[in-house]
Amino acid sequence: MGWVVLCIGMAIGSGIVFLPVQVGITGVWVFAASVLLAYPAMYMMQKLYLQTLSESSECENYAGIITQYLGKNWGVFLAVVYFFMLVKGMLTYSLAVTFDTAKYLQNFGVTKGLLSDSPLFSFALLCLLVLVAAQGEKLIFKVSSPLVLFKLGVVVLLGVAMIPRWNIGMNLPALPELKHFVIDVVLTAPFTLFSIMFVQVLSPMNIAFRKVEKDPRKATYRAFRANRIAYAILVVAILFFATSFAFVLSHEQALSAKAQNISALALAGSVIPGNGVLYMATALNLFAIVTAFLGIYLGLEESIKGVVMNVLTRFIPRERVNARLVSIGICVFIVLGLWSWVQTRFSILLLQQLAAPIYGIASFVIPCVLVYKVPALRKYRSPRVWCVLGFGVILCLSPILKAMGY
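== Aromatic amino acid transport family protein ==
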């Protein structure tokens, strides 16, 4: 059950808070089509991912398993892709936490204007978050389970609270023209996928089960079972949440959220009457975005530290390197980098679409390559592998379509 909770916690992040905005822009029919594509493909992908992990003779991380299967070049390539996944997450959450926090302070009447217009506000906020992340690793892990359960409960409660305000007639548009419908489905697919994906936690889960179970088959069964339970819970909760939002927020309100670079939760608190929705939306956004920021920071700091130490030890003996000074320097570098990024006010929705190929390659394409290149995995060849590969290609199309002006 602990791993089920962690899988759910990994899924409830930026995807769920920005999905309703994209749904409001493209429409319910596009969302329905993207769900029919993304959710089955994600389940098949994560099952295939676990199968490739379980067939490895070594109990190690996914990059190590790729190296074992395909050689060092593929292992290095995957490590680079994972690094960019971490960077993309930090870029997304730094924008979200800045603009959403400023919007909430305005909603609660603390400020009249938006503090996100002030560079000092974003700098102070990022300094605070990085300080907590750098010092409070043990605290983050201790409180993760209750925070995840709280997030899941708020997702369901928000969906229920929206029901009295549903306006199906206004928010159920006619089917768009076929060409635009297909393009919108492709552009919405990354948001639909990110709202439920927890592939990042599957490798640590597999490793944990392999260490405590003497029989590898039993460890594999437990990993598959945790994956199925988490997936089923998320499908029900996220679909209900997103659909409920889609029937409340209008197309114009979704465009307003996009223009302000804020999530659907920050918008809901300002346009829907009643303090209950405002408090729940604030709490969910706070826990979803802040905990994700803190969690990803740990991985990013470790990755950058590995690169820095690799370079420094080429010129200085490892025992002479001041590890604390290196950590402080990395913290300063991350804060300044994220602060400079926030000042660009880059669109969060656009970033999600442009970064989709990173996830398409790492999570969808590579497991399919393994099945067709590694003799030990031939038994997993099936039409489902081609479905997974096809969805990976769809994710890679998002930036191409945006470059074409769609």
